[in-house]
Amino acid sequence: xxxxxxxxxxxxxxxxxxxxxxxxxxxxxxxxxxxxxxxxxxxxxxxxxxxxxxxxxxxxxxxxxxxxxxxxxxxxxxxxxxxxxxxxxxxxxxxxxxxxxxxxxxxxxxxxxxxxxxxxxxxxxxxxxxxxxxxxxxxxxxxxxxxxxxxxxxxxxxxxxxxxxxxxxxxxxxxxxxxxxxxxxxxxxxxxxxxxxxxxxxxxxxxxxxxxxxxxxxxxxxxxxxxxxxxxxxxxxxxxxxxxxxxxxxxxxxxxxxxxxxxxxxxxxxxxxxxxxxxxxxxxxxxxxxxxxxxxxxxxxxxxxxxxxxxxxxxxxxxxxxxxxxxxxxxx
Length: 332
Fold this sequence. Notes:
Blueprint: E1 17-22, E2 27-32, E3 38-43, E4 48-54, E5 59-64, E6 79-84, E7 90-95, E8 102-107, E9 113-117, E10 122-126, E11 137-140, E12 146-151, E13 157-162, E14 167-172, E15 181-183, E16 189-194, E17 200-205, E18 210-215, E19 220-226, E20 231-236, E21 241-246, E22 251-256, E23 262-267, E24 272-278, E25 283-288, E26 292-297, E27 302-308, E28 313-319, H1 323-326
Antiparallel strand pairs: 1-2, 1-28, 2-3, 4-5, 5-6, 6-7, 8-9, 9-10, 10-11, 12-13, 13-14, 14-15, 16-17, 17-18, 18-19, 20-21, 21-22, 22-23, 24-25, 25-26, 26-27
């Protein structure tokens, strides 16, 4: 893989913009996928990590983890940055102090923002991204080294991935006095996503090299499948497939949602750190630790283009060219 962008045969995405966290540079990049050039870089603090894009409200949320990796000690960062999609500038900062190492971020259908402090295993809730600066509430998630969070659209439940305690905890957000309900789907659960109807929570277990399907209502593990080495993240890839990336395994796979059976696999030239899936499961963008973003056709499971990024590309999202005119998009 060279140090130049390879976009001789770009996808049919036109002037769509890839929004990408460049963790090592402390920036949020806006890259034109047709040309491979970066249009804008927004300066943030060192080592931002996860992002969430709300197209209907017109902003990006970026959590400030503040450490290069989860293995690095320290209090980390204590902010969530709100970046306006139109101006590409920071328009608000959600202050999570004294809670640090802000990693997982989520949002419900009402626009309430949730930030997960790995340092204190606390979930902070903000009334909105633009109208708040301090959390309205905080609740313990009941795990250790709590890394990622997912919240249901109706704001009733949150699910915390707790690496060190090898647990996933279910939080009843409307009943803060109710203790977290723990479940062990495997060793070191981290990656997760809800099914389209939010009935199933898919979880990648990095320590046991498995993917689990958890029944949200019953709060039981329905099925577990052995997968390849070190499954880091899982994403919906259309109505019946999942995309899984393998960090130390240096690969990605498509799984069938119903059975968790592997449908396709691809070796990668570097370690994947994050991905996003677009076009109802037709295309994916994979962030690689070689400082590249790889575009993959999920129908043929072949690479489309490679683009050079800044240092340590991480979470990403594809902004469609017509996002302003389309309107009415759901938060993602």
